[in-house]
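TL;DR need structure tokens for one chain.
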Amino acid sequence: MNIGKKIIMNIKRYLLASLVAYIVKQVTTFIIHGVIITGEYTALGQIWRPDMMNWMWLFNVLDIPSILLITYIFVKGYENKGIMEGVRFGLILGILMWIGGAFANWITFPITLSLAVKWFVFGVLQMVITGIVLTLIYKPKKV
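>> reply
TL;DR here they are.
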């Protein structure tokens, strides 16, 4: 196989990994926020924007560039070391994303500490799952 075909195959693997990671993120987001934490959101109903549900679709759109970038970062550091590589990647990225995200919101807005902790824990867990998925899907050809 020539170098051009190998590069195309790696791009296809990157896009497939991104697509699967996006789907996993959407499913886990629904489980976390639409099922597990939904009661806390309801209890804090007075602090949310009255039209917030009209804008929820935007999260799905914003996840597209996010997942493409997350996959890109994963691919640039990919070492083909198995599942634990995905776990490590997810822990690092999850903590980076959620340590500030969850607790900055708790400092800024009148949400409960319990909700901030859940955002942090579930956000990190979601990134670990994403890292594992990327490890399982992204298997590049040698260039």
